[in-house]
Amino acid sequence: MVKVLSSPRADVYGQMAFDEVLVSEPSFAGEDLCRFFNWTGGPCATFGYAQFYNSAKAGFEAAGIKEFTRRPTGGGIVLHKDDLTFSLIFNCTRDLNVRQIYDKLHGLIKENFKKSGVDFDSYNDKSDYRPAPGGQNSACFTNPVGGDLMSGGVKILGGAMRRYGERILYQGSLQLKGARENEFFKTVIENAFAEFRSAPLTRGELAPETVERAFALARDCYASQAWKGKF
Prior knowledge:
Layout: E1 2-6, H1 12-24, E2 32-36, E3 44-47, H2 53-62, E4 67-70, E5 78-80, E6 84-91, H3 98-115, E7 121-122, E8 149-151, E9 154-164, E10 167-174, H4 183-197, E11 201-205, H5 208-222, H6 225-228
Parallel strand pairs: 1-2, 1-11, 3-4
Antiparallel strand pairs: 2-6, 3-5, 6-10, 7-8, 8-9, 9-10
């Protein structure tokens, strides 16, 4: 079963913490999970795990972004204004590498959009998927990689991944006007993930104790200068 989880409203620190709790806690082991971020607050940003803090911070401050943090996943800088931000968590042996996972998942999202009458392009550079190189800062949505979805030459869907043993955390962002509140977009992503996992959809909510652990992690880790300034 693919469980679509609802979660409380949270800022950027809480969103990252929810994902870490869901991918790493034993109580969720083996479950296929889909979660759409339920945002609170104004525009914010995230940057990839391996990127340098000082240059990211300077860019955010210049853009007037006050809330930002380092993701547990790789990739580049992502601004979160009205994007549909979501996470997919699932088991995957090392028989599939991240390049294959990325291509297959994005391909299914593209196919499910097409079934509903919306046709996007794929960015066709097939160089290896990898986190942002060597701490280099780059704006994720101005630097597409192979498998990203494009519209009119502009990247609209990208994602970043991290392995936790045999568990995969994928964090995605669909950057289309009004995407965050668009139930059609959510349905397309849910159906694509269910097809990816060859499993039916079900729905659930996070237990209060899970929410409590996530908010504690948000405070102690993702909002801390030690985490944000790690590199």
